[in-house]
Description:
Blueprint: H1 2-7, H2 12-30, E1 33-36, H3 38-50, E2 63-67, H4 75-82, E3 86-91, E4 112-113, E5 116-120, H5 126-133, E6 139-144, H6 150-156, E7 159-162, E8 181-186, H7 189-199, E9 223-227, H8 238-253, E10 257-260, H9 270-280, H10 287-308, E11 313-317, H11 341-345, E12 349-357, E13 360-368, H12 373-383
Parallel strand pairs: 2-3, 2-6, 9-10, 9-11
Antiparallel strand pairs: 1-3, 4-5, 6-8, 7-8, 7-12, 11-13, 12-13
Amino acid sequence: xxxxxxxxxxxxxxxxxxxxxxxxxxxxxxxxxxxxxxxxxxxxxxxxxxxxxxxxxxxxxxxxxxxxxxxxxxxxxxxxxxxxxxxxxxxxxxxxxxxxxxxxxxxxxxxxxxxxxxxxxxxxxxxxxxxxxxxxxxxxxxxxxxxxxxxxxxxxxxxxxxxxxxxxxxxxxxxxxxxxxxxxxxxxxxxxxxxxxxxxxxxxxxxxxxxxxxxxxxxxxxxxxxxxxxxxxxxxxxxxxxxxxxxxxxxxxxxxxxxxxxxxxxxxxxxxxxxxxxxxxxxxxxxxxxxxxxxxxxxxxxxxxxxxxxxxxxxxxxxxxxxxxxxxxxxxxxxxxxxxxxxxxxxxxxxxxxxxxxxxxxxxxxxxxxxxxxxxxxxxxxxxxxxxxxxxxxx
Length: 395
C-alpha cells in the first residue's frame, strides 16, 4: 500500500475511502469500531496526496486503528501517523473492570471473530484483531499486559508482536511493575515488525525506553527451538498443542530449524501478576504479596535464563484453546495462561497463525531471550502458516 502511494500508483485518499467502506460493510456484523473519525482521516489522506512523493513516509496512506483509550498523541500512534499512516479511529476493548479481558464491546454488542461471528475475537485489543483479520486495515495498535495483543491475534489468525519490555515507549512513562507494553497487530508479521520498528525508541514521555529497533536481518544459521505445550502449569487442548508441534516438525524436517527437547517448568504467574498489575494501576497491593510476586518473578527469570542458554527460541501455543463462544469470557480466564508469564518476565513474544482447527485459527507463540526480539520474529516468520481469508472479509 505505502509503496503504491509513494509511487503515485494509488492515492492515500483512495485507500482511506476503501477502508472506511469496509467499516461500513463489516462493523455492523463484527462490532470492531469504538469510535470513527472519517473526516479527519480523509483530511490526513488528502494532505499526504498533496505532499511530494519523496516525503510521504514509510507507511504512506496505510489506514490503521488505535485501541480505545489510546491518545492520538501517544508515541505508538503519533509515530505511525508521522510515517504517513492514516488513523481511522479507535477499536474496541472490553470493560476494563471485567476479570477476563479476552473480548470486546462497542457499547451495544460484543466484538465478533471474522472466522465465526459466534466466537470471541479475544482481547483486550479485541477490535484491533477483528478489523485486521477482516481485511479492513492492515495494522492496528494495542497494549499487552497479560496477552492482550497476542490472544486476539491468535484467535483471529493474524500476527501480534509484544516486544521486550520498553521496546515502544508508553504515554504513561516508565512502568511501575513492568508488565504492560504498547504494540501492534498486523495482517502480516512483516507489517507488524515494520510498524514496531517505526514506533520504537526513547521519547520525552519515556526517555528510558529501549533504543530504536531496526527491522532485523535473517539469522546466519538454523535456529535452535524448544517446544512446551503448557509451560509446566497450563491446561492446553491437546489438539491445539499438536497443531503447533506439527508445524515445528515440518520446519525441523526441512532443516530450517533444529527442534530440541526443552523441559519447561515455570511457576504459575498468577501469584505474581495480580499484585504487580495492582501496582501498575496505582492500587496498593499488600507488601507481603508484592514481595512474593518479586520472588516468583526471580524464580521464573532464572528458569528462563537457563532455558535460553541452550536454545534460541521457545515455542508454545499462544492460547490453550481456539476462540471461545461470544459471551463466555468469564468462563475462559485461562485464555491468557500461556501469555502472561512473559509479561511478568518481560521477554519478547510473537504470535502467528500455525493453521486451522475445526475452522478456527491456532496461534503459535515464539519467545526469545530479553532484547532478542529479532530472534523471536525470525522464528515466527518461518513458522507462520498462510491462511485463507476468513468468511467475513473486506477484499
